């Protein structure tokens, strides 16, 4: 009594093992995709927060608030300026599911 699941022929003894492997794989892929999407969506806000934190640490007042930082980033780097340095963030996201 063989079954076909997603084009894979399974015999009764292998059915549970293959299904669990497929579930784990899909879970890792979906988790990684969700992490990439959320990092991409929140990175500009994180960039603004970091710039304001560094400004306070240096003791100088260059920015008046969040909107001022956003205007400065947009003026100097355009829309790409909000995503400068996102590649290391993506490496963190890709590494997270494998570091449990």
Tell me the fraction of residues in β-strands, as a range. 5-15%
How many strand units?
2
Q: What's the main sheet like? A: 2 strands, antiparallel
| SS-based class | mainly alpha
What is the helix content? over 70%
The largest sheet has its strands arranged as: 1-2
Number of helices: 3
| End-to-end distance | 37 Å
Notes on the structure:
- The structure is a single chain.
- The protein contains 3 helices and 2 strands.
- With 100 residues, the protein is mainly alpha-helical.
- It has one domain.
- Strands 1-2 form a two-stranded antiparallel sheet.
- Strand 1 and strand 2 form a beta hairpin.
- The protein is rod-shaped and about 75 Å long.
- The two termini are 37 Å apart.
């Amino acid at each position: 009594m063989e079954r076909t699941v997603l084009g894979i022929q399974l015999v009764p003894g292998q059915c549970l093992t293959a299904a669990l492997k497929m579930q784990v794989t899909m879970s890792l892929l979906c988790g990684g995709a969700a992490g990439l999407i959320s990092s991409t969506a929140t990175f500009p806000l994180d960039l603004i927060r970091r710039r304001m934190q560094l400004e306070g640490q240096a003791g100088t007042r260059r920015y008046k608030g969040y909107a001022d930082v956003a205007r400065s980033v947009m003026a100097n780097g355009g829309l790409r300026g909000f995503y400068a340095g996102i590649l290391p963030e993506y490496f963190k996201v890709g590494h997270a599911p494998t570091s449990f």
